[in-house]
Design goal:
This protein is mostly helical and about 100 residues long. It has 4 helices and no strands. The chain has one domain.
């Protein structure tokens, strides 16, 4: 017997919520790509993607996603993922740390 296609209700997001959702989705894609590049030994390219993701959602959220993808999906050793992410963070502009002073 044929079942009708389920109707999906789209979330109605106001513009700021939609912008935040899109920003998080893009950052998640950067985390995945950076983890994949790291696993393939392309550290410079992975750093570029990581910096783009960090710029979108901040280092704390990005680094947790990137490390999770690197270690669980791409089988990068946790120490290697940590060292990679620590190496990327000093590359951030001083303005990103202005609030910490």
């Amino acid at each position: 017997m044929f079942e009708p296609k389920q109707d999906w209700n789209r979330a109605n997001l106001d513009p700021p919520a939609r912008e935040a959702f899109v920003r998080k989705a893009k950052a998640d894609r950067f985390a995945w790509t950076a983890a994949e590049l790291l696993a393939n030994g392309k550290h410079a390219d992975a750093s570029d993607k990581a910096l783009q993701g960090i710029a979108l959602i901040g280092q704390e959220h990005f680094t947790s996603s990137c490390k999770r993808y690197a270690t669980s999906v791409f089988q990068v050793p946790p120490g290697t993922a940590d060292e990679f992410l620590k190496g990327v963070l000093p590359c951030l502009p001083r303005a990103a740390h202005a609030g910490e002073i």
